[in-house]
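User: Hi! I'm working on a homework problem where we have to compare a predicted structure to a textbook description. Could you give me the structure for the chain below?
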Amino acid sequence: MRLHRLDMTAFGPFGSTQSVDFGELSAAGLFLLHGPTGAGKTSVLDAVCYALYGSVPGARQSGQGMTLRSDHAAPGVRTEVTLELTAAGRRLEITRQPPWERPKKGRRAGTTVDKAQTWLRERDAASGTWKDLSRSHQEIGEEITQLLGMSREQFCQVVLLPQGDFARFLRADAEARGKLLGRLFDTRRFADVEKRLAERRRAAESRVREGDADLLADAHRMQQAAGGSMEPPELTPGEPGLAEAVLGAAAVARSTAREQLTAARCRLATAESALADAGRVLDVVRERDRLQRRFAEARERADRLRERSGAHHEERTRMERARKAETVAPALDLRDSAGAEHARAAGAELRARALLPASLADAGAAGLAAAARRAAEELGGLESARRAERRLTELLGERADLDRRERADDEAREDAETWLADWEETRAGLQAGIESAQQAATTARELAVRRDPARQRLNAARLRDRLAVDTEAAEEQARAARERALAAKQHWLDLKEQRLNGIAAELAAGLTDGDPCAVCGATEHPAPARKVAGHVDRETEERALAGHQRAEDHRAEAEQRLGAVREALAAASAEAGDTTTEQLSRAVHELEQQYAQARDAASALHAEQERLRRAEDEHELRITAQREAAVRAASRVGHRERLDREHAALEEELAQARGDATSVAARAAQLERSVGLLTDAADTARAAEDAAQRLKEADARLADAAFRAGFDTPGAAAEALLDDAAHRELQRRLDAWQHEEAAVRAVLAEPETVAAAQQPPADLGSAQRAAEDADRRVREAASARDAADRCCAELDRLSARAAASVRRLGPLREEYDRVARMAGLTAGTSADNERKMRLESYVLAARLEQVAAAATVRLHRMSSGRYTLVHSDDRTGRGRSGLGLHVVDAWTGRERDTATLSGGETFFASLALALGLADVVTDEAGGVRLDTLFIDEGFGSLDDQTLDEVLDVLDSLRERDRSVGIVSHVADLRRRIHAQLEVVKGRSGSELRQRGTR
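Assistant: Happy to help. Predicted structure tokens:
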């Protein structure tokens, strides 16, 4: 990496734009950056670091970059840093602008915050032009880190060798030295390995303990299943021998359970044999009891049969008479049917004769039939008169239709004449309406063109009014956010000042007798400082800093929202103009009313055109109807004369046919009714005569059938006859008596029943109780056998699961032992790690050994061959081992601590260490070439001879085409180094002056 040019504007102490031509300074190989204290020498290096990484070293970076702005800069000048460099063979230009709190634009009071911006450009060697690469902070940061191969911390230690850092590194203990080397060489991956192994050890231990816990749980379950006869091992999860103890106890429990199962099976077999004997005795007693009860029931049934024998004889006699009467039943049915038919025929005859005239009331069937024939013949003669009467009705209808059509034609003709008289005036009015609608359509189109711009201005004015209110609210929120940010910053600064005032007590809290003090180096601490009431610790200060940063974020967000609202307000105001919203609203309302009226009037155009078309069609129809009505009136005159002649002839014919009736139809209706009544009366008279004859014949057959069946009269036969339900019921009772009698005889004749009745009564209760006792003993024995069987099965299952758990835990225990050994070795706690050195410390020790070897090359020249830096891996107290650093004095041949070096010796030893570290870090970063280095202060502690030797070493760096910038205010260096960059301090800010480069 080689720097070419640096431009700074309003950065740090520099109020105006300042430029540094590193190309000219680097040509000399060694150049001096000097100036009075506080002028801004270190700020030049901060600008280089900020351009590359977007932040400055150490505690100077705070407030999201807001503190980088120069207090000497004009309010309208923005802070900016531009760096031109070559990295990895590419010519790049980086420009960064930190966040800027600038005055608001226009006449508005207050300030607003612009976001930080970054540009990255690359020079095209072929065309000589710059090409934009990115404006993303993240992309540019990743690109620079990849090209340089270093983080910001590594860059500040390797390229910008800071004031006093390596002197502290030279004298630091192993813990502090390890922290610095860990940041530079990024050994977090080795620490992650240690952490990962520790996590794996804890996880494996947890799995083993969980497995042992499950195993113990199975042991307790086996104890419960064995009923307390098993004693589980008194071991905890993780103890050795737990698996063997559990398996042994399980084997003993299984053996005991099997012995108990064998004894339970024997008891069950004995109980089952006793139950079988009791069952057989119970069956014998039950059978004897059943037979005795059967014999007793048969005797009782026989007694009941003897008591009912008289009633049974009567029912049997009744059944015999009913069977005889069944032979007379058809004759009875025929007599009943004939009687019913005769009654119906006689009633119908009486009703029919009641409707006849008195002269025909006593006539026979033949006389009634003759009268019906005479009336029918007279009815047939009226058919011609009926047709004449119907024709007369039709003639009256036709005459009425002619009159109706004549009146309709007269009305239509008069209406057409009236309508046609106003036609010209109607047509002129309709044409005027069409012309008015066309004019309104033209006006509506013109108003539509003016309506949309007016609406847009009104919407913009309303938005302007809303944004004006939002702007006031946003300004109030931004003001409140700024006040909260200032209060949070002041609170943080106050707490930081309080912590710094009490830092001695905080440092004293970490002192231990025998360990050197970080401030004075003493190993005895007779009077360490004590914390006073209200002491502020690091955590309190960091919480205040976090609160300050959150308040700054809220303030920036509020300022951003305010800027967005103001921009929207300006856009809305530009579109709406100076006219008020109320005026624009009235104008739009009037325009909308005019447009609506014009549109409504224009919408009638089609309707007016349609009305004219319909009026013209109506005009044609009216003229046609007038002509057709005149033609129809002429044709109706002849038709009316023909109808009058036909009507007179029909009236004469009908007068003769009607007689004394009102009409032919009335006369025909009288004759039709007479024919119907006479015919019905004749039919009913003949039916009554036939029914009387059939009734006489049925009575004769009934009397003959009753005599042959043995009955004195037909009435006696009818009384003996039973209906179906009574016959079935009587037959059922007779069959039941016969069945019961046979069943009783059969039971009383059974030998075993008779023999059982002769024995003593059976004691069924005693036999049942004996069988129940035997059954209860069997159930108890079976339950005991089942419990023993389940116990054996459960113990077998749990034992198999315990054995499987032991087999499954085997690989886990082996893995735990292996991981635990590896974790202890990397953590430095294992007995195999003799120096108790952690893995990260081991890697850092190797890096420190490389750094000491590289530093010794330059230290040997700077000290005229006297001193050599060596690495020590001895453990110091309770600190780390492997990170010791000693110096070997060639004059005495002894190795001693670096803290014994003098001030000048400490400086050139630290410088040699820094240069050696830079070489090692460069190699670690992939061999990235560092062509520009800066060394900050420390040369004032050297004598002339040592200073010459140190400068010779630095000057020798030019052999590797490097340039070294020395930051110092030592006056003798201005005489020795010709290429200089001077920082001049003034009231309006510092300025840069470049000398000795041409």
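For your comparison, note the following. The first helix runs from residue 22 to 27. The chain has a mean pLDDT of 77. Good luck with the assignment!
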